[in-house]
Amino acid sequence: MLGAMLTLRRAIAADVPIILELIRDLATYEREPEAVVASKADLLRDGFGGEPAFYVLLADDCDDAGNSETIGFALWFFSYSTWVGRRCLYLEDLFVRPTHRGKGAGIALMRALAAEALAASCRRFVWQVLDWNTPSIRFYESLGARILPEWESVRIEGDALARLAEGALAVRADEGGRKAGPIVHGT
User: In sequence order, which residues have a C-beta less than 8 Å from that of residue 153 and are 6 or more positions away?
Assistant: First the structure.
């Protein structure tokens, strides 16, 4: 049960341990606890440096005595839609601990992300849901989200990713001398 007040806050570097704990809890919920290989160092490097690859909102349950417990999180980043010509907010992970569900933390996180998307002039707020996760599907549809059954997720990783990258052409710098993309090998 939620305490006296639910608060949302942007994560800071000191929150990395709880973020990783929540990521592991999510993986367990999604039936893949062994799939999490991210480390605290990975999250710290990629989320809290000069050019963050992602952002995190934390949901805290605070009681009248001033004690708080982090009960959920949302991790997102910006992508780009060529079709609408604008950035999109992409929600990578949303998780509220099962013992705290149904009390408003999930909707509070989603509303905050919708506001973030609008503030960043995003035309879309996008995420994925596992097809077996009926409670989440119902929750998202109750928000007005549309499940897109015609779109399939595609992923390449590990050895297959390395094989695909073999023989890639080098990417040249743009006219301003900035690196236009990864340099795979010299030219």
Answer: 128
Sequence-distant (≥ 6) Cβ neighbours of residue 60 within 8 angstroms = 6, 7, 8, 9, 68, 69, 70, 71
Q: Where are the beta strands (DSSP E) in 101-171?
A: 124-127
| pLDDT tens digits for range 49-94 | 999 999 999 999 998 888 999 999 999 999 999 999 999 999 999 9
Rounded CA separation 116/123 (Å): 11
Sequence length of the chain is 187
Q: Which domains does the chain have, with CATH numbers?
A: 5-152 (3.40.630.30), 155-187 (no CATH)
CA distance 21 to 182: 32
Instruction: Give the C-alpha separation, 101 to 122, whole Å.
Output: 28
